[in-house]
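HUMAN: Now follow token order:
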Amino acid sequence: MDNRPIGVFDSGLGGLTSVKELMRRLPQESIVYFGDTGRVPYGTRSDETITKYVFQDIRFLLNFDIKLIIIACGTASSVALEKVQQAFNIPIIGVVYPAASQAVNISTTGKIGIIGTPGTINSGSYIRIIKELAPDAKTFSKACPLFVPLVENGYTMNEVARLVAQEYLGPLKDKCVDTLIMGCTHYPLLKNTIEGIMGKEVRLIDPGAETAKYVKQLLIDKNMLGQSGIVPTYKYFVSDCIENFSRLGSLFLEKEITQSVEKIDIEKY
């Protein structure tokens, strides 16, 4: 047993979709969440800048005696995961492998679509893992840079979101993909809009949900689960304005954030 908390970070609020799934699947686990709201989005930054940010985010979380860290950001997972896994002596999990693995498992035609930030798509990380797992799979990817700001501003189910989604997703629908990886933890908030464009027959992969399942099994295998019956604690930190975090964060978690949210200076790390 290991009652130390799990650390989770993202470029903004999207990683809370991962936290929601962790809370559901691992209700005994304490969580420390950092949202780098002052530097969102990561997806349009250079690889060098993203890697710098990820190292700072991890160094901040390590102040809390974390037992495991989840990079709940598709871009950061794609660009910097291997670097930080080599640099830190702690399990660090990204969202790419769990989502790609599940897509391969459930696709019946082998036609898999991938949407994500420009950084995630340009890295080719999802395609690389899918091809390793299923060499005959056909992948089709599309960068969707406007999805993150839409979600961060609460525009998930209105006409603006629908028109943007239609523009982005049309080419993937034309390719007749049967599975679509929502390759950014913000995107599940657009699930209804995405499903409305792609059709209900297309299976949508939520990276946060798949990563939570993966982490649960990892903790079981390593005998690192928190003690059953312990009341977990949740701590939230951001790098910019905290006023909207509780309001928008509650939408991501689908439950009220009752804990105080603290702003920190991430550049110190």
